[in-house]
Amino acid sequence: MTVNDDSFTNWMHREEIAESMIPIIGKLHREQDVNVLLHSRSLVNKSVVSILKTHRFARQIAGEELSVTETMPFLRALTTLDLGPSQIDIGMLAATYRADGRGLSVEEFTAEAVAGATGENKIERRASRDVVLYGFGRIGRLIARLLIEKAGSGNGLRLRAIVVRKGKGQDIVKRASLLRRDSIHGQFQGTITVDEANGKIIANGNEIQVIYSDDPTTVDYTAYGIDDAILIDNTGRWRDREGLSKHLRPGVSKVVLTAPGKSDVPNIVHGVNHDTIKPDDQILSCASCTTNAIVPPLKAMADEYGVLRGHVETVHSYTNDQNLLDNYHRSDRRGRSAALNMVITETGAASAVAKALPDLKAPITGSSIRVPVPDVSIAILSLRLERETTREEVLDYLRNVSLASPLKRQIDFISAPDAVSSDFIGSRHASIVDAGATKVDGDNAILYLWYDNEFGYSCQVIRVVQHVSGVEYPTFPAPAV
Question: Looking at CB atoms within 10 Å, which of 120, 145, 179, 317 has the fewest?
């Protein structure tokens, strides 16, 4: 047998293991509300090849590839436990078991590591919480995809309706088509049908009522059987408390804005300050995509090194706020063709840092350049630190933060020397540290942070909504503090 034959045999063996993982992962998700992760990446509804690629990607974080032969025993061990709703990272189980010197079996170690999700410690499965999307644009449709994806267990969040202004022609058919196919993010994973007679889009069995309105004060959501819903406003039309309060109608109890909030509206970056949300808070903002990209790594650097001052320059993909061809625009420069120009513009991300990190007294400035790509941006975060350090120390620290800290769902890490922007389309992290581009000189550090300003941000919004609704289940093994 040749070396090539050996490699192919090994590949087929790993394929077989990954294939046997799928029904186990699906059953844990459907029957026990357990989301199986691999280094913060969900394995639910993933294909054989996706599972293998996710294992291989672990080398970017941990420095070596993780094999399904290592993680499968932990997955099998989970099936023997009386688990409650939770997120369990089998990548972290394998890594911590490898470092554990007590001689425990995989079954004994797994039972101990996830004890907080078993027996008397189990969280009760909660009833679904209704969600309404006000607006159905780029962010709205991605949030819809995520809500539908996460509805598999029948618990958690349930997308009940979208509210839009009625367009001409086959409005509902066209909106369903935009949900079904996306030029950047690809095909919807599942089936979508339209019930025009009843004004509904049915996606993977989820019946989504289409409500036509241009005025939030005219809608009575209880008329559609919607109760105690969280409404996600992704129009950006209202950004202060007075305007967003218009959404607090019968059937809606909380409003979450997918844009920076003005005045006293709290700007929430999940992973950083979501624990400041009070049970009686009715109106919240998820800040901007760029704020979500820079605040988690900024917090990580401030916690370890201290930050005296900083500047963020965002090289941002163009958005629907710009013109495709030169035309009138109320803002300077944004009227020039987005597809043909780099456009200097403003960003509120730097000023929004103060809301998300009030304890950080360092002044942070910022500016932005819109460039001719449709998705994925990069933030260049230049920091003056309180102490000197080295590039190696910073990279080791940020790699560990991405692997085993409370910010591991927000911060990703990549060391691939040939990575470019399109490689990060579909990333579920708020930002990805590019190790190869990182620069450190004494007390000066420059971080290059990729982020999918559409999908990664939408994932952050979902995390905030899950937290608000009480269906943000704990992760095991617990990340290091």
Answer: 120
Q: Which of 133, 289, 301, 379 is catalytic?
A: 289
CA dist list (Å): 45 to 51, 331, 465: 10, 43, 22
Q: 449 burial class (0-12, 13-18, 19+ CB within 10 angstroms)? A: buried
Q: Which residues contact 300 (CB under 8 A, 6 or more apart)?
A: 397, 398, 401, 405, 407, 411
Q: CA–CA separation, 302 vs 296, rounded Å?
A: 10
Which domains are seen in the chain, by residue range?
A: 3-121 (no CATH), 129-259 (3.40.50.720), 289-453 (3.30.360.10)
* DSSP H or E run through 349: helix 349-356
User: Could you tell me the pTM of the whole model?
Assistant: 0.91
Encoding tokens for residue 403? 């692997």
Greatest pairwise CA separation for the chain in angstroms: 73
Tokens of 317: 């993909």
Query: Can you tell me whether residue 373 is helix, strand or coil?
Result: coil
Is 286 in the active site?
no
pLDDT along the chain (481 residues), means of 10: 72 93 94 89 91 80 76 96 93 90 94 92 83 97 94 78 92 96 95 96 96 95 96 95 96 96 94 95 96 97 97 95 93 93 87 87 93 97 98 96 90 93 96 97 98 98 93 80 56
Q: Would you tell me the crossing angle of helices 68-78 and 90-99 to the nearest 10 degrees?
A: 110
CA distance 58 to 95: 11
Distances (CA, A) of 184 to 376, 411, 452: 10, 22, 11
